[in-house]
Structures are given as structure tokens and as C-alpha cells.
Design a protein that fits this description.
Helix 1 packs antiparallel against helix 2 and helix 3 runs antiparallel to helix 4. The chain has 258 residues and is an alpha+beta fold. The chain has a single domain, classed as Creatine Amidinohydrolase, CATH 3.90.230. Strands 8-7-9-14-15 form a five-stranded antiparallel β-sheet. Strands 1, 2, 4 and 5 form a four-stranded antiparallel β-sheet that branches. It has four helices and 15 strands. The protein is globular, with a radius of gyration of 17 Å.
């Protein structure tokens, strides 16, 4: 159910904040390097080197695989291009002007996880793509604004859905945010659509990763043969933004922001 963050365990608060800072720094380094001609494998190496230099471990590398047909995730980041929504595996294909790139990164610092994602344009992009990027980031901001102690998880979901759909976009099915702490994925699930009264109450001490995934077309996805990459079923482009947040006596704190 996420890490307990209270005045009685301030050390855990500090560790989670540091994990989030390492993730935010890695994302900023990748943002600066994400230009036409660069490859997502090169960005992956940038993230790996920064996380390890900072005394942390990549959360994603080697994730999964136990007891399923799905292979372990092979990289430090998820790098999803254009119609790839999430879990794209870095490769050696150069990025092109006009591409939309989503970068998802996680790090473990002394046993605690940070998890965040950004989407960005590679050079000039179409008006629709720019709108998709702006709407995705604003959806995250509105979800965070609705995340208050005493509110239901559904308040986050509804704030994201109401805004995104008003902008003409759809929220992808099945995937959303999650609790986070000593494991990357913990209860509760945080859907990106729903009613304000849905789900459990947010309590002081919870930590959540909030992550809207917007599609410019279909909200359904298909899975590539690599066992990880999820893309829109109709080839529409998608954006993905995420922050890790902790709820303290003084209000919510965004761990993954510089």
C-alpha cells in the first residue's frame, strides 16, 4: 500500500525523495540528449550510468519474468516512440524529426523506489502531437492536484479523465498508476478513469505513482512479440507522464521533481 511516510519515519521520507531525485536527474539528462539521430539505446546508457553513479540501482532492469512466459525486462528505461504507449525496449533505431518519445525511468535507492515518466517532441512536431504532449502533462498536474489526504483514489482518476477527454483524447485501458515504496508496484491501483468516490481513501503515509497515458485514437492496446512493448491498436500516437508522490502531515510531496 505504499511506504508509510510520517514524522515518525523521516528517514524513509528522505530515502524515497532521494530515489525520486535520481530518477528526475536521469530524465533531465535524457531530455537533453534526445535529439534527431540519437538512439534510445544511447539514452538508456545515459540513465544507467547516472543511476549507478548516484549509488542507486535501476528498478526496471531484470524486472518481471518470474513464473510467466514474459521475459525479464532487459533495459534501464522504457523508451516508447509514437504509437508505443509504454514499455518500449530501447534499440539502435535513430530518432527522427517529428517523433514523439516517452521515457519511463525508475531507481532503487537503499531499498526505496522512485518512478517517473516524461514525453517529449523530437524537433518540430505536428499540431496534434504538440496538443497530445501538453494535454498529457496537464492531465498529470490535475491528477496530482486532486490527490489529497481524505479523498478517494477515484478523485485522481476522475480529474485525469475529465480533462483528457475534454481535450479530445482517450485514456488507455488496463494500465495506470500504483502504490510504490519498497517495491516498484504496490497496491492500490490508480486508474486514469473513474468516479471521484471510487477506490480507497488516500491516507497520510501513502505513496503513489500517478501516470496518465493518453491516446490520440483508440484506448485499447496490443502487445508486441518482445513481450513488453504496448502500442495503440489503431496506430494512434500516445503520451505518458508520471510522478511519484508521498502524502505527509504537511500535504503531498512530489518526490520525482527537480
Amino acid at each position: 500500500m505504499g511506504i508509510r511516510i510520517t514524522t515518525k519515519n523521516e528517514e524513509q521520507f528522505k530515502l524515497m525523495r532521494r530515489a525520486g531525485q535520481i530518477v528526475a536527474e536521469a530524465l533531465q539528462l535524457m531530455r537533453e540528449a534526445a535529439v534527431a539521430g540519437a538512439t534510445t539505446r544511447q539514452l538508456d546508457e545515459i540513465a544507467y550510468q547516472h543511476i549507478r553513479k548516484s549509488g542507486a540501482i535501476p528498478s526496471f532492469k531484470g524486472y518481471g519474468g518470474q513464473g510467466t512466459d514474459q521475459p525479464k525486462y532487459p533495459a534501464t528505461i522504457c523508451a516508447s516512440v509514437n504509437d508505443e504507449v509504454v514499455h518500449g525496449i530501447p534499440d539502435d533505431v535513430p530518432l527522427k524529426p517529428g517523433d514523439l518519445l516517452s521515457l519511463d525511468c525508475g531507481a532503487i535507492y537503499r531499498g526505496y523506489h522512485g518512478d517517473a515518466a516524461i514525453s517529449l517532441a523530437i524537433g518540430p512536431v505536428s499540431e496534434v502531437t504538440q496538443h497530445l504532449l501538453v494535454a498529457g502533462e496537464e492531465s498529470l498536474r490535475r491528477g496530482i492536484a486532486a490527490a489529497k489526504v481524505g479523498a478517494h483514489i477515484g478523485a485522481i482518476s476522475n480529474a485525469i479523465q475529465t480533462y483528457a477527454e475534454a481535450e479530445g483524447f482517450r485514456l488507455v485501458f488496463d494500465y495506470g498508476g500504483h502504490g510504490i515504496g519498497t517495491a516498484m508496484h504496490e497496491d492500490p491501483h490508480v486508474p486514469n478513469y473513474g468516479r471521484p468516490q471510487d477506490g480507497m481513501l488516500i491516507r497520510e503515509g501513502m505513496a503513489l505513482a500517478i501516470e496518465p497515458m493518453l491516446s490520440a485514437g483508440s484506448p485499447s492496446m496490443t502487445l508486441d512479440q518482445d513481450g513488453w512493448t504496448l502500442r495503440t491498436s489503431d496506430g494512434a500516437w500516445a503520451s505518458h507522464f508520471e510522478h511519484t508522490i508521498g502524502f505527509t502531515a504537511d500535504g503531498p510531496v512530489i518526490f520525482t521533481i527537480l
